[in-house]
Amino acid sequence: MDNNEKEPIEDIGKEDEKEFIEDNTDIEENDVQETKKISPGRFICEAVLYIALLIICVSVVPKYVIQRTKVDGTSMEATLNDKDNLLVEKVSYHFHNPDRFDIIVFYPYGKEEDPEDYYVKRVIGLPGETVQIIGADIYINGTKLEEHYGKDPITEAGEAEEPIQLADDEFFVLGDNREVSSDSRDFGPVKKSDISGRVVMRIYPFNKFGLLTNK
Q1: Are 200 and 211 contacting, i.e. CB atoms less than 8 angstroms apart?
Q2: Half-sphere exposure at residue 174, Cβ-oriented, CA atoms within 13 angstroms
Q3: Is 75 a catalytic residue?
Q4: Which of 39, 70, 83, 121 is catalytic?
Q5: Do 51 and 73 share a domain, yes or no?
Q6: Confidence (pTM)
Q7: Which of 14, 18, 36, 75 is catalytic?
Q8: Domain containing 31: what range?
């Protein structure tokens, strides 16, 4: 064979090539049509699911799981300030009582009596304890409570001038700014049933964003 001769390259005829392209185009179009087909039943199911999720996010979560609230006033300074935005979790107290020094949201006059009037304070006395304020000091069961949350020393003991015996479902609360705070010295102990939840995080202002602990 002559070295200059080249073996003929088998070529696809134009008609065959055209049929090949059309066949592949048909396959792609069929795939697209199949992916676009959604049965009415599936569409309805997905729509119902999305609506249910929306309802849960808008109504159930804020009422039973976690809720945003805003501080109104200066009674919790210097821990919390006026207009601070907080997140309140509402689950844990279904399983255990608030701990001492937790910051809680509650209804001082009852959820049913005035659902719009809620306070943010710190838990000081626990169920079954006896609380008394003598001078600037807080006593629990006759022993001085060592704590550092008060912005200023207490000058008004209010109802706690005399020993207050807490029932099995009652808590004694104080604001950290004790010179201006209206708390258990004024309206008495708070029942657990009137506690909405525990403050866990400050989300605004952004420069103070973070978890709030009782340490």
Answers
A1: yes
A2: 28
A3: yes
A4: 121
A5: no
A6: 0.73
A7: 75
A8: 15-64
